[in-house]
Design a protein that fits this description.
single chain, alpha/beta, 6-stranded parallel beta sheet, 15 helices, 44% helix
Amino acid sequence: MEYKNDRLVMYLHGGSGNHGCEAIVNSTCHMTEGIPKLLVTNSEQEDRRYSVGALCDILQERKIAEHFFAHVWYYVWRKVFHDPESFMRYRFRRVLGKELAPLYLSIGGDMYCYEVPRKEAMLAHSTFCRAGARTVLWGCSLEPELLEEPAVVDDMKRYTLITPRESITEQALRDAGVVENVKRYPDPAFFLEPESFALPAGFRAGETIGINISPMIVENETVQGITVANYRKLMAHILDSTTYSIALIPHVMWHHTDDRKTLAQLYETYTDNDRVVLFEDMSCQRLKYIISKCRAFIGARTHATIAAYSSMVPTLVVGYSVKARGIARDLFGTEEHYVLPVQSLSDPAELIGAYEWMMEREEEIRRRLTEIMPAYREEAGKAGEEIRKLWRAVQ
């Protein structure tokens, strides 16, 4: 299939096995309805398995590492001619250039938060800019320290539009002099609609505590084993001191960072306990439906917590990054008590204390979310109008 100036291109998508990535694409497609879209993906197979396949065209990006002769040729070319963009031209050849696609959305919201993905994002961006297209950094978060690097600031200024998803990133951009192309909107996934289905018998709606843990927060702990130890103590505390059930809910199922592996460690003690349910893989919309039926939620993955927030479920984030802090601050005026930094965990009972603080204020938190969330979700959807304006301008 040839693409001739008739698709909005979404790129730097890792695949829907990360259901946060899926939620961003799903929501973006719905808020830009009427605009033809092409998702350039690292995993076409994953995207067709879940909710994305019915919403946009999908193109598998070219993987240079899988083609020996191309890899050797481009590696030599890159070394001889000092042309780092050559790999990106290979990767995105079928959609590169404004005559093929006039507008590109970088939808990997936290790509700039990690060293290797950041280099990838900056190279892809410079490649598209050199080809004459307009670019959007969509629903992003950036650590403020990153914007002390002149190369990153220059890269930010080349975007036609940047939509930071929380105020810490917005302020950091403005402090760095990136102002004219910045408009803050909530994360696109706040706009995601859940999909209802029959929940298992062990799940009691409104009387179940949802729990999510990820290998990534374990990797960021400063005391070895402290994260899993905290979660284990919390589960025992909930089961011993309340009548609530527990739902263990994965949100990322990539082989190198699979929530199910860490959740299995928590579940192994309770395989015969009918008050503990371990969920398997499913679409972001179904995962949001499960989370929406919880009484409260303790989560590590950003988009699992967004599913909870947007469903008015009191939520405690076990986080480590600017996105967790910024979103909580925007919702509640502070991240204190709402985000428990995994780097600070030193006592195996800390998570119990944070959970108890939340549950003592359960109705207050739910009331706060109920008051603000309709407008907050609507504001997330309004970001689609920014894309419509740009789309009309390039037609």
